[in-house]
Amino acid sequence: MQANSIRTLALIDSGAGRSCVSLQFAKRLKTKIISFRDSDNPIRLSAADVHPLISVGTIDLTLTIQGLKIPQKFTVIKGLSYNLLLGIDFMNHTHAFIDFRSKTLSICDDLIVEHLLPSKTPTNVIKTTSSYSIVPLSEAIIPVTSNTACDGSFSIEPLPFLHNRHVSLAHAVVSVNKKKTQCRILNPTNASVVLPKHTALATISPIQNHDVIGYEKPTTEPTVPLVSYDTQL
């Protein structure tokens, strides 16, 4: 997503009453922070462990999620661990729905469906070995490597944010030899797509060899019927 013109990640927090932005990130946005006046009652917020948060003001930002622009007011917090924290006010404003089974967030009555990212990057991923350019409306087979030692049969599952790079990768079973294998990447767009070196594409999980059934093309000719179908009729 983007906050004004800067790409960033945001934490969805259903336990937060207000959406918050870190003071450090707010300064990067170069947007005016409306400070709390001495005569006003400052907003008092506390973290999950009940320790008080230092709020210095509010800021109005425009969030862009898959092209949809959403205005949102944020409380500026000093020392916040995340750039952005989207709370209950954002969820009510956008009619947000979190699907834990599919790990997606839908907003504005399913107008936008965004995949949720894990708090930590998976360790069992495959990445591009070099930079590759995929021409429009085409499929490419590119070499990839695993960041962990592995050999044998593995299943690959595309990472949920891969669509942000405008390419598609199917679930597949691949053979890995000394951390190296290949995968098929589809560029369904009308423009070339460049995948930089070490781009994470998919997670990789081991499977048992006896679970993989190979396909062998029949070598025998099909049986010719002794009586033609016309004769039977």
Summarize the structure.
The chain has 233 residues and is mainly beta. The chain is built from 3 helices and 20 strands. It has helices at residues 23-29, 88-94, 229-232; strands at residues 2-3, 6-7, 10-12, 20-22, 34-35, 45-46, 52-65, 68-78, 84-86, 97-99, 104-107, 112-115, 125-128, 132-134, 138-146, 152-158, 172-176, 180-187, 193-195, 200-206.
Walk me through the structure:
With 233 residues, this protein is mostly beta strands. The chain folds into 2 domains: 2-115, Cathepsin D, subunit A, domain 1 (Beta Barrel); 125-210, Deoxyuridine 5'-Triphosphate Nucleotidohydrolase, Chain A, CATH 2.70.40.10. It is built from 3 helices and 20 strands. The strands form 4 sheets. Strands 1, 2, 3, 4, 5, 6, 7, 8 and 9 form a 9-stranded mixed β-sheet that branches. Strands 17-16-20-13-15-18 form a 6-stranded antiparallel β-sheet, with no helix packed on it. Strand 10 (97-99) and strand 11 form a beta hairpin. The longest helix has 7 residues, at 23-29.
- The dominant shape is elongated
Count of individual domains: 2
Determine and state the CATH class of the largest domain.
Mainly Beta
CATH superfamily of the largest domain: Acid Proteases
CATH architecture of the largest domain: Beta Barrel
Average pLDDT, all residues: 84
Number of strands: 20
Number of helices: 3
- How much of the sequence is in beta strands? 35-45%
Order of helices and strands: EEEEHEEEEEHEEEEEEEEEEEH
- Characterize the biggest β-sheet: 9 strands, mixed
Helix content: under 10%
- Integer-rounded radius of gyration: 26 Å
User: What structural class do helix, strand and pairing data support?
Assistant: mainly beta
Which stretches of 5+ consecutive residues score pLDDT under 50? none
According to CATH, the fold-level topology of the largest domain is Cathepsin D, subunit A, domain 1
Distance between the termini: 66 Å
